[in-house]
Amino acid sequence: MANRRIHPKPQIGDTFGALKIEAEAEPYVSPRGQNFRRWWCRCKCETLKPVRETHLLSGKIVSCGCVGRENSAAARVLTTGRPRESGKLSNQQKQEMVNRYLAGESTIALGIAYGLTPAAVGANVQRRGGKMRSLSDSHRKLALNEAAFSEITEASAYWIGFLMADGASIETAST
Ligand SMILES: [Zn+2]
Hints:
Elements: E1 15-16, E2 19-29, E3 35-43, E4 48-52, H1 53-58, H2 73-80, H3 91-102, H4 107-114, H5 118-127, H6 135-141, H7 146-167
Antiparallel strand pairs: 1-2, 2-3, 3-4
The structure holds zinc ion.
Zinc ion is lined by residues 18, 43, 45, 47, 63-64, 66.
């Protein structure tokens, strides 16, 4: 844990959402002269696009643009490890998910199972009249979800690190 690198350098062949790195690209140089490493990425739809490394690692860019542009896309990839593949959940799946929450599973674990953000899991529970557990109740459940939770912690650490790095630079160009 202590030696975990917060800034792993991506490698050719690594995948981020729908993107797979093929080669290093020319860096993007901001108006203030900052250099940002970029990678040529092949989207699963075959489009080739240069993407900033910080945007890959933060989850800000998960495809050439074909996967969907919702604000929650980055959060979904980080919490579930993948973009949601097959559209919306059926009502039956949502009800099953809510039942599992009410039976004691966490929004994090269910988010991973159903390809949603934890917040979206919670919204579904409330929409169906379920009561959310308090944070202290949830903490008691964490032991049950240890495997899922350690995965999140690692992803979140990357995300927070890059949001802090990226959030400090103000630019308007998108690549
Ligand atoms: Zn694409």
